[in-house]
Amino acid sequence: SSLKVVLLSGEKVELKLLKQIRSKICPNLLIGYGSTEAGSEVTITQLTDSDAELANGYVGKALDGVNIKIVDPNGDVLPFGETGEVHISSSYTIKKYYNMPDEEIAGFSDDGYCKTGDNGYLTQDGSLYIKGRIKHIIRVGGYTVMPSEVEDVAGMFPSVGLAAAIGVPDEIYGEVVWLVVSPVPGQTVNEEDLIKFCKKVLAKYKVPRKVIIEKALPITRIGKVRRIEIQNKILKLLESKKTIDNSILYEKKGDIGIISLNNPQKSNHFNLSTLTDLATTFRLSAKNGDVCVIYRAEGKHFTFGADLKYVKEMVTNIEMRHESNAYLWAWQEVTIAMMEHPGIVIVGYHGWVIGGGFEHTLGSDLRLAANDTKIKLPELDLGVFFSNASTMLLPLIIGEGRAKQLMLMGEEISADKALSFGLINETCPPDELDDLLLKYAQKIIAKDHLALINAKKLINAARGSSLNTVLYQEGRAMLEAGQSDTTKQRILSFLNSH
Fold first, then answer.
1. Comparing 43 with 386, which gets the higher pLDDT?
2. What per-residue string of b and e applies to 109-121 under the rule 16 or more CB within 10 Å gives b?
3. Alpha carbon distance 246, 299 (integer Å)
4. Which secondary structure element, helix H or strand E, spans residue 315, and what is its range?
5. Per-residue pLDDT averaged across 400-407, rounded?
6. Percent of the chain scored above 70 by pLDDT?
7. Cα–Cα dist 274/254, whole Å
8. Residue ranges of the alpha helices (H) in 51-159?
9. Which residue has the higher pLDDT, 128 or 169?
10. Which among 339, 365, 242 has a CA at the least distance from the CA of 283?
11. Radius of gyration of the chain from its Cα atoms, rounded to whole angstroms
């Protein structure tokens, strides 16, 4: 109660983190922008500024005595709204570095402005938006790190031949220093020893968090290391790893678990790894005692369902037959994990929800949808079959006639039509979906927890055929369909037309 306001500074803050800070730490937030050279704070936001604006990179307007301009690579001032490097001048902006002429050229303009290394733009009313980093300077928690300073120290290490210091994204500091080195011919570099050596010379925030050792580094014709090329390669590898490792996100907030599909670059397609991770995450949520689970997705669409390029490869490559069978049963494992979860599972649809991407959610307890939701079951058009006990669950939810209409006709239906069918419980505008999901979850966890568990168990037990029997029957049908040459041609045709 004694904390009145939180001041954030450094890199752009994501919307999700802003909301967490407001709900868990303090509702009053300010964001300031500055650096060691330019001044600790040269702009600041207002308490009334929206989270959406802050998450978009808005850092406020210049404080008294601060001058800000946006310039292009040639140093020419850009008009309002155009993105370039942010230059700052004030009475407390330093004028140069001590005894570092090369860094002085990189860090300051001829007219005395500090080159922040940040890309941003100004609006006509003086609002500053920061859009990202210019890669030749590393900013660690607001401190400027010149790559050459780190590289010079690394070059003093006996077995280091060439070195490149790069900035790598970090959730806490915005960026941290990584060092990529190649050894002197005939020698080896020990990562731990090199980091210890750097700690003796460099300030703590300049010390590399990680050392990557390569046989050789790319260089220019005059022998300079191609730092940007190295950084782009590392960042691309990290992004690829992030996509794989974090395709399913899980967060526990009290009695509520939040499971998110997190591969929007691929429309949240499902491959074997993603399905396995999803089933594992639902089981983890159950183990953690989540009374309610919100199941949602990042990106423009909830999910396009099966990754058809991946499916095509499996059905056309005999060596992947084992993986094909594993992929089939991984879909069923998701349904089992969802339906055996003792908590109440709420799904939030938006954008496209296609095929198995829709069918696997039928094991949920409540379904909400944004107004832009479009549901489609194209299996019979492709010559494949339905999954996730949908041949049992869908008729139970909306009736046999409507279930046959969706499954046999394969036509797209809107959120409003799904609501009229009783397929979903409520619709809302897309930007209100997360709030609606949370509202439902909070109402659920306010009820008696044991009563909720028993209610779900008894309602599910009232169904006719056993779940395992339906899953087995669907699995056999899918295997038979997958062996058909017609199916392979239909999938290939679908891929080519999309």
1. 43
2. eeeebbbbbbbbb
3. 14
4. helix 308-316
5. 92
6. 84
7. 26
8. 51-55, 101-107, 147-155
9. 128
10. 339
11. 28
Extract the tokens encoding 70: 């946006």
**pLDDT at res. 467:** 59
**pTM for this structure?**
0.49
Cβ-contact 273, 247 below 8 angstroms: yes
Determine contact, residues 32/63, Cβ cutoff 8 Å. Answer: no
Distances (CA, A) of 496 to 318, 345, 368: 22, 36, 33
Asked if 173 and 133 touch (Cβ cutoff 8 Å), the reply is no
Task: Give the three-class secondary structure for 5.
Answer: coil
- Going from the C-alpha of 76 to that of each of 38, 73, 207, 451, the distances in angstroms are 19, 8, 34, 68
pLDDT digits (tens, 9 = 90+) for 273-332: 788 889 888 988 988 889 999 999 999 999 998 877 777 776 666 666 666 777 777 888
| Contact criterion met (CB below 8 Å) for 355 and 306 | yes
Closest residue by Cα to residue 337 from 270, 286, 390: 286
Task: Give the pLDDT band (50/70/90) at residue 243.
Answer: very low
DSSP state of 194: H
Q: Chain centroid to CA 159: how far?
A: 38
Helix then strand count (H, E) for the chain reads 18, 22
Distance of alpha carbon 142 from alpha carbon 196, whole angstroms:
24
C-alpha angle 280-168-162 in degrees, rounded to nearest 5: 125
Give the CA dihedral 270, 271, 272, 273, nearest 10 degrees: -90
